[in-house]
Amino acid sequence: MLSMSLSLVAVFLPLLLMGGLPGRLLREFAVTLSVAIGISLAVSLTLTPMMCGWLLKSGKPHEPTRNRGFGRLLVAVQGGYGKSLKWVLRHSRMTGLVLLGTIALSIWLYISIPKTFFPEQDTGVLMGGIQADQSISFQAMRGKLQDFMKIIREDPAVDNVTGFTGGSRVNSGMMFITLKSRDQRHETAQQIIDRLRKKLAKEPGANLFLMAVQDIRVGGRQANASYQYTLLSDDLAALREWEPKIRKALAALPELADVNSDQQDNGAEMDLLYDRDTMSRLGISVQDANNLLNNAFGQRQISTIYQPLNQYKVVMEVDPVYTQDVSALDKMFVINSEGKPIPLSYFAKWQPANAPAVGEPSGTFGGFHHLL
């Protein structure tokens, strides 16, 4: 009794020590069962023997239970067990072969049965993350989003698709896909993802990583996959060197699909360099030049229009037609202290450069996250 109870408590020990969100959800369950087993053990070793000694006293002789209905059934079961045991002992070679076959079947089932940390749900909703070329423009990224949405809408199991681009990264976007009800489709969510993956791979310059939305999601970061692997280092150069190698090794594993990373260090940007001596001679301050660029490209909010049922933000910017390439800077003029327009190119020069790496810090270390 003692060994059996301790074995049951050991079964729930991993749940007691599990961290993260799953550990918080399962800790009460594990504690309740462990305490219940402990109380049952204490009662069995202390109270039960004393109650048996007090209550189970010899009384009047009674008819043996084997002569009753349930007793006769028990005797028949015991007799059948004895006959089967004798047969097994007489055919020991066949019994050994059956034992080996059972062990082999158990090993095969352990290898072949799908295994996962949590059983995958089919909630009827898919979430997708778009990752495009790091130097892509917002307008081109919007076209990629529309292409992906068109491909997904054509799938017979899809009911509705919504998506957006932008945010902190121009080359990224999100997509939410609502599937039809289970009585209107014959595939699971994962089967639909596998089918769409082949069609979405034909879109050049961008990738869409799909996954089924789960009620219990592991990890605290927004990601393009179900599992995350974080690579940490206090040396950013070492991270940039080893991240592609590790990602390539993970992608080579047949068990993994849609391996991607949030490392992005080849984004395109334009650096503007001011000639402050020339600016002082022309009567232009750095603030004047910065205000010009902010008004033209920063989507500056200058006012709010109030209506009875809603309010609307007034944003000042140049026409998007003039923001497609760097030639727009040649047409910019700054008003100096004397009220004269001075071309931006008179006191500034610009040159293309790579954007800094995009990696979410983890504590005091830099880090990149591999998404599987």
UniProtKB/TrEMBL annotation:
Q: Name one Pfam family in it.
A: ACR_tran
Listed A to Z, the keywords are:
Cell inner membrane, Cell membrane, Membrane, Transmembrane, Transmembrane helix, Transport
The record's GO molecular-function terms, alphabetically, read: xenobiotic transmembrane transporter activity
Spell out the InterPro entries in the cross-references.
AcrB_DN_DC_subdom, Acrflvin-R
Any one of the GO CC terms:
plasma membrane
Sequence intervals crossing the membrane = 32-56, 94-111
User: Signal peptide span per the entry?
Assistant: none
Coiled-coil-forming residues are none
Q: What is this protein called?
A: Multidrug transporter MdtC
Q: Record the organism.
A: Raoultella terrigena
